[in-house]
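Hey L., structure's done. Input below.
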Amino acid sequence: MNLLNSLAKISLITILSRILGFVRDVLVAQYFGAGMATDAFFVAFKLPNFLRRIFAEGALSQAFVPILSEYKNQRGKKETLNLIAHVSGMLMLILGVVSILGVLGAPLVIYVTAPGFLCNPDKFELTYILLRITFPYIFFISLASLAAAILTTWDLFLVPAFAPIFLNISIIIFSLFGASYFHPPIIALAWAVILGGLLQLSYQLPTLRKIGTLVLPCINLHNKGLWRVIKLMGPAIIGVSVSQISLIINTIFASFLMSGSVSWMYYADRLIEFPSGVLGVTLGTLLLPYLAKSISRGCYKDYSYLIDWGLRLCFLLAIPSSIALGILSKPLIMALFQYGNFTTFDTDMTQRALIPYTIGLVGLILVKVLAPSFYSCQKIKIPVQIAIITIIITQLMNIAFIWKLQHAGLSLSIGLAAYLNASLLYWQLRKKNMYIPQPGWRIFLLKLLAAAIIMTIVLIGLMSFITAWDSGNMLIRLLRLMAVVLVGAGSYFSALALLGIRISDFNRKLSNQ
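Output:
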């Protein structure tokens, strides 16, 4: 089993998707800026996206993949396909009802999730109009996530990894060519979201048919496998929704702050999602089916080894990413967003939101590895209890930080809460003897910190020589930034090599797995 090879392939596709996502955000920033219209769209897009992350990609995958893996490895094909049919049927029924309720109750939803918009009737009306268009996105993207869960259980990771690209392409095309056909133009983005969700689902269906898992959905409340999934999904919704619930509550807080706050936090969130998605989400997606497979086969040493491998890789890549993103935050925002209606003031405000996010990046990524460790063996209560504690602490920090730090305080609370979440998850793994660390962790971390210090010195030195980050067009800015990033990355990995740590070591270990 060569996990490193699989991780590299998935990461490359994810990087492509994230790059297109940045192109998407650059176009939105350039054509629409950061103001009332973008605030309205980001809230309208965030709500169905929030449900997707919790319900589909979060709770559904965490509850469904371990049971599906068990059926695939221990039961016949007929029972496995029967499980898929009943889960997909129930999911379609629930999603249909949720979509209809969301469209009909859009004003009420905005009233609850962005109450600050009530002070501006035009902003409030535009937001719920956009939400009525975007809300059915949850239907298509959740079914696409179900398809992805099935494909990853069959060790087919590349197709679902490629699917999100279609959403970015859809928004890019509508931004460039469709905005002039809508009034107001921002409505074009809402329809682009719907088309993107439909394309993500359609793209995966041929692969499902190829492996023989494309079945007709059906509803049978007496199916035992379905109820096992539902039983796990309830607590899993709480367990995987900590950061998402915090983001929604942050939107409520931000809606009371100055106009543009929601947009600044969105752009900062998008930037932090790049390393978090490429490493954290990719690792979590890759590890979950293998962890579940190890548990279903009784291979507990393999299970512990996989966790150790994931944690080491997290620290290896997350620490330099966090430092580099913090140091290069302003040049990065300038290179990607500071064009057209996106002003220097918007850059400064986005940087104020991004810096606290970078502080918590390592914690955010660690949670992506630690949480699946519990769900893969169907131990739901522990992460749920930790999630509740984390949500409460996050909101207490919000109240403490928001008055002095404004929107930056909201992102700081999420970053700090991520470390609390990760620490408690790790403590429970060790307490339950579910994970036994491999030897050499202390030396490993000291070497990482030494290499990170060298990289920090190099990046700060380069920053002192380059001052005009806002000069030139986008290509020049990006090339300038990429050169600095490459030099910084080169210094980090060169230092690691001199200290005896190489990426190939992870590959060799897994080859012996």
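DSSP finds 21 helices and no strands in the chain. The mean pLDDT is 85.

-- N.
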